[in-house]
Amino acid sequence: MVLMNFLTFFFIIAFSIVTVGSLARKYGKRRYHPIAGTIFNQLLNFSRLHDYMTELASRYKTYRLVTPFRSEVYTSDPANVEYILKTNFDNYGKGWLNNSILQDLLGDGIFTVDGEKWREQRKVSSHEFSARALRDVSSRVFRENAAKLANVVSEAVVSDQPMDMQELFMRSTLDSIFRVAFGSELDSWKEEGARFSRAFDDASEITARRYVDVLWRMKKALNVGLEAKLKENVRVIDEFVYKLVLIHTKKMNDCEEGILWRFVKVSEGDPKYLRDVVLNFVMAGKDTTATTLSWFFYMMCKHPLSQEKAAKEIKQVMIMSSNNIQELSEEALDKMHYLHAALSETLRLYPPVPVNPKMCLSDDTLPDGFDVRRGDVVAYQPYAMGRMRFIWGDDAQHFRPERWLDHKGCFRQESPFKFTAFQGGPRICLGKEFGYRQMKILSAVLLGLFAFRLSDEGKTVNYRTMINLHVDGGLILRAIARSDL
Questions:
Q1: Is the dihedral of CA 119, 470, 107, 171 positive or negative?
Q2: Which residues pair with residue 73 across a beta bridge?
Q3: At which positions is heme bound (predicted)?
């Protein structure tokens, strides 16, 4: 393992020196973004990767990192983001690089493919997410899981025990996505579901490291180091998912509704295709929501006045709606403007996908006047963008939900090319409202019933560098019933 790491560092240094010179000659007289470092710097800073890249973004709105054989361009400029995601959408796809890196974990799912494969999956998914039936079913499932989660927290309160809220959110959102999207009851409290979830998280971290490890293909071929661990994690994942697909497709004869049924129809029951669909939906429906909720409750603990303000709004809405807190209606949720703002502020600072890479498919010039070449990675950075003063003002790094509210206290939308947590343009997240609904229901129930604080106020909370922005080591909280306050 030590030898492989040494060879990786040596390889990157040698090739970066050669590449800087060769790219300078190759790029000639055209204008290219300033070089801020090499992929070697990313590897050295991997445990704090997004903060390192935020430091670079604060110096350059858009910059290049040199890697063997190409440049990687990272931008925090909303004009560039809009151009990449919307104006010249067809020229910026996932490309072969992203597909090859993500293939072992996510296969040919909607997050890894372009062209007809993407359009087909997008069309099927769009039909379901626009259906009222999905909204009604999902709201019922979210309320049921919120009640279950409240019972777990209540037990912890009675026994005066701390809880890993991130783990609880992961279990709850995993159960929700399987029930809503696949129509399958998943008792994720059991070891089989927990084993799948751990393997998925570990595989996600190793897959993210591939972006900065130029020797990953060699390690995969030799089946050594992290690539050997990834292979084992994918085996555990596949065993679980293929079993789910087999059980579900057998029941399909008596059921012609739901997201998975539509994909079964499109794919004619191809197990590999369905396996990829399931895992991409798990990535979208479990990790993104659970990580956002985790960071949201962390923010609530770090900013107790915001926590009390959200709890007060929830209580007032419930009184006006004459509604039980565990039977939240759509109308009640729509009135929770501060809660929606606080969740959005969390997404601004802790976006579930902290960096989103595309590949330039033909030579181009971005709105900032600089050029990019075919084959370059061109990525926008939601994590860094949320911390840029030129976008959000001098208080960009501070948690302030009020920035999302107008003078009447009503929630105010921002441009998706400024607030990039849900992408924008043709690839804008289909599950945006789905995710907000789930987060608001879980948050409203828990904050309406309990007050939360960090179990260890002195412990530093950091992220784990992986595809999604998990809290490293979990989020350990304590709660007290609001009736006891």
A1: negative
A2: 64, 378
A3: 429
